[in-house]
Amino acid sequence: MSCGQAIKAWEAKNEAVAEEADVVKLYAQVPPISKLDNSLNTLKNCEHLSLSTNCIDRISINLNGLPKLRILALGRNVIKRIEKLEDLAESLEQLWISYNQITTLDGLADLKNLQILYISNNNIKSWAELDKLASLPALKDILLVGNPIYADYEKREDARVEVLRHLPNLMKIDGQMVKPSEKEAALAPAE
């Protein structure tokens, strides 16, 4: 199914005009959306766009027609890398991209207003990838559980401390508030 077809189906189901809507949910389409197309750029008032649970393998278009987009949900697809989000640099506050095949955190550096990044159950293997997020001043909440970077840690608490070593301004990791003891442990030299 194309994005254009999914938008038309959404309009029929919701008896609404998609380009006027602030929330557009195109998740779990049957047949699934396999490719993003420029029909998404007609959603000029959209603040929350859900494309989760489809078969999207890449972010193949610029999203310059979505100036108000604050929440982009792309979880449960087959996306391998994050790209073409530069046009959302001023507006995007939340990126939900868990359960994909992402190996690198390239492509996020321009998202200065990003507050929440849900990227669990991907294929992030290196702690150095988290350093790429250090330039995001608003980032306060991250979901990383289910990535290979946690594999060497028997205790989740130890992994959380390592996350804080790379991203000390976080307030929430893997769904739990950061504890003062974790902040202190992150400041201590690594063993």
TrEMBL record:
Keywords, in A-Z order: Cell projection, Cytoplasm, Cytoskeleton, Dynein, Leucine-rich repeat, Microtubule, Motor protein, Repeat
Subcellular location: Cytoplasm, Cytoskeleton, Cilium axoneme
Main subcellular localisation: cytoplasm
Keyword Disulfide bond tagged: no
Signal peptide, first to last residue: none
Keyword Repeat: yes
PROSITE patterns xrefs: LRR (PS51450)
Record-linked InterPro entries: Leu-rich_rpt (IPR001611), Leu-rich_rpt_4 (IPR025875), LRR_dom_sf (IPR032675)
Alphabetized Pfam families for the sequence: LRR_4
Coiled coil: none
Entry's Gene Ontology cellular component terms: axoneme; dynein complex; microtubule
Similarity comment: Belongs to the dynein light chain LC1-type family.
Name the record gives this protein: Dynein axonemal light chain 1
Species for this entry: Triparma laevis f. longispina
